[in-house]
Design brief:
Elements: H1 16-24, H2 32-35, H3 37-41, E1 48-54, E2 63-68, E3 78-83, H4 90-102, H5 104-107, E4 112-116, H6 121-126, H7 148-158, E5 164-172, H8 175-189, E6 203-207, H9 213-223, E7 237-238, E8 241-242, E9 248-251, E10 267-273, H10 282-303
Parallel strand pairs: 3-4, 3-5, 5-10, 6-9
Antiparallel strand pairs: 1-2, 2-4, 6-10, 7-8
Helix pairs in contact: 4-10, 9-10
C-alpha cells in the first residue's frame, strides 16, 4: 500500500519542502546536556574524555564526545563501542555509558577501548531515527557522507592509528520502527510501505561478509542471562532477514552504509535490544547492552 504518512505526496520522493515540514514537526523531548554529557564528564578522572566534533545545527548544544582508555598502548588491540547512532535508541547510549562506568577499566588491561556513546545527540533529544535533514546516519557511513553524525565518527575512526579488532554498535528495535519510522521512510522515498513485524527480544546483526558465528553466539549467550532472545518468525526470519543461528541475522554492513561497516574489524556485531517488551525494564535494556559487550570481549580475550 502507498504510505498515508501525513507529509508528502504518496508515490513521490520528498523535496526540500517536505524535509523542512518533517523537521518542523519534531520537538525536543529530553536534554542531551542534562542526561548524557554529565555522565560522560563524570568519567574524565578514570579515562580520557575528548571532543571529536560538534553538530553544526547547534555546536554548543551538540558537542560529540568519546571516552578512551587512559593508558593507550600501541601493543594492545583496539575495541570501538558506538551508541546512539540512532539517537532515539536509548539503551544504546546509556548501555555504552554503563559499560564505561562499571566494566571499561578492567577490560582496559587487555584492550585499548574507545567509546562514542551518543553519535546522534539531536536524534537523542527529539527521539528520532533521522537527523534534521531527514537522513539516516546508520545508512550514511561512506566517503563524503552527507550526515554530519556519520562523517564525524568516520573521522574519529580514521584518527586511530592502530588496527581496530572489535567493533560493537549498540542499537534497539522499537515498536515505533513500525508505527513511525518505516512509514516515514517509505513516504520520504516515494515507495510502497509494506508493514512488517517487530521481534520480541534481543538479537544481533553480523556482517554477511565476515559473520563470525562463534563470536555472535558468545554475545547471545551472555545477553540471554539478562534478557530474552528474539525468536525467528514463521518464515525463519527476523525483520525480513534469515536467522542464521538463535538470535542472529546478517547484513552487508559496508554496502548498506551501516555503522557496523565503519572499520575493517575482525569481530563486529550490531546489537538490537527490544525496549517495548513487557518483560523488560529500561535498566535491563542497559544491562543487556553491557552483557553484549562483556560477552564479546570475553570471547575475543580467549582468542588472543
Amino acid at each position: 500500500m502507498l504510505s498515508s504518512y501525513p507529509i508528502g505526496t504518496p508515490g513521490q520522493k520528498w523535496g526540500d519542502a517536505e524535509r523542512v515540514a518533517w523537521r518542523e514537526q519534531t520537538t525536543i523531548k529530553r536534554e542531551y546536556q542534562q542526561e548524557v554529557v554529565p555522565k560522560i564528564q563524570a568519567l574524565a578522572q578514570q579515562f580520557t574524555v575528548e571532543q571529536y566534533g560538534a553538530l553544526s545545527y547547534d555546536p554548543e548544544r551538540y558537542p560529540l564526545f568519546c571516552i578512551k582508555s587512559k593508558h593507550w598502548d600501541a601493543n594492545k588491540p583496539v575495541v570501538l563501542i558506538t551508541g546512539g547512532v540512532h539517537g532515539y535508541e536509548t539503551s544504546g547510549v546509556h548501555g555504552a555509558l554503563k559499560f564505561a562506568a562499571n566494566e571499561m577499566e578492567r577490560y582496559s588491561e587487555q584492550f585499548n577501548i574507545i567509546i562514542a556513546p551518543c553519535v546522534s545527540p539531536w536524534g537523542y533529544e527529539t527521539i528520532n531515527r533521522w537527523n534534521p535533514l531527514a537522513l539516516d546516519p546508520n545508512r550514511s557511513f561512506y566517503a563524503n557522507s552527507p550526515a554530519e553524525e556519520s562523517a564525524n565518527l568516520i573521522k574519529l575512526v580514521a584518527s586511530i592509528r592502530e588496527e581496530i579488532l572489535v567493533h560493537i554498535d549498540l542499537h534497539e528495535t522499537t515498536d515505533t520502527d513500525e508505527s513511525e519510522f518505516r512509514p516515514a521512510l517509505a513516504a520520504r522515498d516515494g515507495v510502497e510501505y509494506i508493514p512488517g513485524s517487530i521481534p520480541d527480544g534481543f538479537y544481533t546483526v553480523g556482517n554477511s561478509e565476515n559473520p563470525q558465528p562463534e563470536f555472535q553466539k558468545a554475545v547471545i549467550e551472555s545477553v540471554s542471562k539478562v534478557t530474552h532472545i528474539a525468536p525467528a518468525d514463521e518464515n525463519g526470519e527476523i525483520i525480513g532477514s534469515p536467522v542464521t543461528q538463535h538470535g542472529v541475522i546478517n547484513y552487508p554492513m559496508v554496502k548498506l552504509g551501516l555503522c557496523g561497516g565503519v572499520t575493517q574489524c575482525q569481530y563486529g556485531t550490531t546489537t538490537e535490544v527490544y525496549p517495548d517488551s513487557p518483560k523488560v525494564t529500561d535498566e535491563e535494556c542497559n544491562d543487556a547492552q553491557v552483557a553484549a559487550i562483556v560477552g564479546a570481549l570475553d570471547y575475543v580475550i580467549q582468542t588472543l
